[in-house]
Amino acid sequence: MAGHSKWKNIQRRKNAQDAKKGKIFMRHAKDIYTAAKQGGGDMTTNPSLRLAVEKAKADNMPNDNIDRAIKKATGTLDGVSYEELTYEGYGPGGVAVIVHVLTDNKNRTAADIRHAFKKNNGNLGENGSVSFMFDRRGYIVITDENNTMNEDELTLEALEAGAEDIQPQDGAYEIFTAPEELAAVVDHLRSAGYEIADSEVTLIPQTTTTVSENDVEKMLKLIETLEENEDVQDIHHNLELTD
Q1: Does residue 191 register a pLDDT over 50?
Q2: For residues 45 and 66, what is the distance between their CA atoms, to the nearest angstrom?
Q3: Is 153 exposed, middle or buried (0-12, 13-18, 19+ CB in 10 A)?
Q4: Mean pLDDT of the 176-180 span
Q5: Residue 179: CB partners within 8 Å, gap ≥ 6?
Q6: Distance CA 42, CA 217 (A)
Q7: Which pLDDT score is estimated for 5?
Q8: Sorting pLDDT into bands at 50, 70 and 90, what band is 15?
Q9: Per-residue pLDDT for 19 more than 50?
Q10: Fewer CB near the terminus (10 Å): N or C of the chain?
């Protein structure tokens, strides 16, 4: 994980999506649907749903849209049934890529994902072909753009809350937890007065891959193409992104 900053990926994605609120709301709706489907529609007993709703509200998603997604998942509103799927493969230069989707038509989605990889010099592989290169971890970002935060105090607070690791980045701190401890650590840090910029259970690469400038451009094009697909929920990769 040395040298890898998921925060850089988040910043790049957020900047690219500023003008795409409709798609952002759709992605949040699917996240909420998945969390409610797996753990129920009560946010007090389903921390994954609570975090999904918090992220949706942070992007100003209307409450009606949030409620509708929960009702669909819990069977109190007739609607489309979604299926979760994972695709694994390699992008340009041998970059490992994992794509999570939520779809109501897996044949359409499979064709779209395969086309995106082929068009951008990538190759889809079998399930398990790259997932062994990633660890599933809880992930939290606290921003400090003015460099006014006391790193030692935050580190002690995070470790006391149950975090496993904290890494300073340019204008932010990345905090890593066991997946099942994410919600508890988020709650603890908030109660201590810290503002959470982002939090999720995600996949973190064990090592990163450095490729040529040309392949970096191709890889970013592959990511952009996948992000434009409304069925794609998350994209994980081990590309070494530099400033």
Answers
A1: yes
A2: 17
A3: exposed
A4: 94
A5: 136, 137, 138, 201
A6: 43
A7: 66
A8: low
A9: no
A10: C
Average pLDDT over residues 53-66: 90
pLDDT at 182: 93
Nearest CA to 137 among 237, 206, 80? 206
Integer CA distances (angstroms), 142 to 106, 145, 171, in order: 36, 10, 9
The structure tokens listed for 16 are 């690219």
Question: Which one has a higher pLDDT value, 59 or 115?
Answer: 115
Contact 124, 114 (CB under 8 A): yes
* Crossing angle (nearest 10°) for helices 47-58 and 21-39: 170
> Hey, what amino acid is at 39?
G
Q: Rounded CA gap, 194 and 112, in Å?
A: 41
Contact of 122 with 159, CB cutoff 8 Å? no
Please tell me the distance from the alpha carbon of residue 204 to that of residue 5, in angstroms, as a whole number: 9
Residue 239 DSSP class: B
pTM: 0.78
Percent of the chain with pLDDT over 90: 57
Q: What is the C-alpha separation between 167 and 174, in angstroms, rounded?
A: 5
Q: What distance in Å separates the CA atoms of residue 138 and residue 186, rounded to the nearest whole number?
A: 10
Compute the average pLDDT of residues 107-128.
Answer: 95
**Interatomic CA distance for residues 77 and 200, integer angstroms:** 27
Residue 199's alpha-carbon distances to 94, 131, 189, in angstroms, are: 28, 21, 12
Half-sphere exposure of 97 (CA within 13 A, CB side): 27
Of 120, 123, 93, 70, give the one whose Cα is nearest residue 226.
120
Size (the chain), residues: 243
